[in-house]
Design brief:
Elements lengths: L6 E6 L6 E6 L7 E4 H5 L7 H23 L6 E13 L2 E14 L5 H14 L1 H5 L6 E5 L7 E5 L1
Antiparallel strand pairs: 1-2, 2-3, 4-5, 6-7
Helix pairs in contact: 2-3
Length: 154
């Protein structure tokens, strides 16, 4: 079974002077602004890395809840923060790391069982696995002069 979810972005202008918006299919995010300044200079607005962080934190928290429940433990609260490390390399900017930090209240759990569960959740969380996923691309240029342009990569 495959469940498809989507997000979208619209960008206008150049890299530093341009502006964009991101939206989600569900409408939870609708035309949220982002720009060079919100990504690299701390200006107001979102950026791809914090969205990846939020998605990873949410996914990991759900995965940890499942792992704990499978072990007969019911979490009262799981709070996760994901810090996404964006670094400039010789090849350009690259997401080099994600640091997950989790605090949880789990009645009946001991530290060793919790650590095992957290490590299992990290390994099985779909967003954790996404970071090693195959990424495919379909590109289509619209409004170009000449023949229609399209590319697919797998």
């Amino acid at each position: 079974m495959t469940i498809d979810r989507s997000g979208s972005a619209v960008w206008t202008g150049g890299l530093k002077d341009g502006r964009g918006t991101v939206s989600t299919e569900s409408g939870a995010l609708k035309e949220q602004p982002y720009a060079f300044a919100s990504r690299f200079e701390g200006a107001r607005g979102t950026n791809p890395e914090e969205l990846i962080g939020a998605a990873h934190a949410g996914c990991f928290s759900m995965a940890l809840s499942k792992v704990l429940e499978d072990a007969g433990l019911r979490p009262e609260r799981i709070e996760t923060r994901a810090v996404v490390g964006l670094a400039k390399t010789a090849e350009g900017f690259t997401i080099r790391s994600v640091r997950l930090t989790v605090e949880a209240k789990v009645p009946g759990a001991d530290a060793a069982a919790f650590e095992r569960s957290a490590n299992q959740a990290k390994a099985t969380c779909p967003v954790s696995r996404l970071l090693n996923a195959e990424i495919t691309l379909e590109a289509r240029l619209v409004g170009a002069t000449g023949a229609s342009a399209g590319a697919g990569a797998g």
